[in-house]
Amino acid sequence: MSTGVEILVPLGFFGMIAGVVLVPRYFRNKERTEMQQTIRAAIEKGQPLPPEVLDAMTRDVKPAPSAARDIRVGVVWLAIGLGIAGFGLAMGQYTEAAMPPFLGIGAIPAAVGLAFIVMSFFNNKSR
């Protein structure tokens, strides 16, 4: 007989992940919309925009990609992949079945890290 508790744990886990990702985006979007309305009202009334407002508008703009940034991001992703793979190797000492999934999961961020490192060489030559 199922009480429904078995489904609450996975739903709670994925709901928490969604909340951690979506709630900050919602509030950032709401803040941006309110700022745009305020700026629009100020422009319609003929008031000049202070430099602080312009700084706040450009605060979330991503910097241009650079070779140094790509290498930093690539090294972090590569380290995450190697850490997951190392955990799989350590777990393989206790149970053989644990090692292959962790090595496979660790290969994904490691591949992303290698891709960023390779992109840093192409980004360096394009400048």
Give a short summary of the structure:
The protein is mainly alpha-helical and 127 residues long. The chain is built from four helices and no strands. The chain folds into two domains: 61 residues; 64 residues.
Can you give a write-up of this model?
The chain has 127 residues and is mainly α. The protein folds into 2 domains: 1-61; 64-127. The chain is 80% helix and 0% strand. It has 4 helices and no strands. It has helices at residues 5-44, 51-57, 67-92, 99-126. Helix 3 runs antiparallel to helix 4. It starts with a helix and ends with a helix. The model has no long low-confidence stretch (mean pLDDT 85).
Low-confidence stretches: none
**Inertia-based shape:** flat
Summed up, the domain count is: 2
What is the CA-CA span between the terminal residues?
Answer: 66 Å
Strand content: under 5%
Cα gyration radius (Å): 23 Å
| Sheet with most strands | none
In DSSP terms (H or I, runs of 4 or more residues), the helix count works out at 4
How many extended strands?
Answer: 0
State the secondary-structure class.
mainly alpha
Q: Could you state the oligomeric state of the chains shown?
A: single chain
Overall mean pLDDT score? 85
Give helix % range: over 70%
Spell out the helices and strands N to C.
HHHH
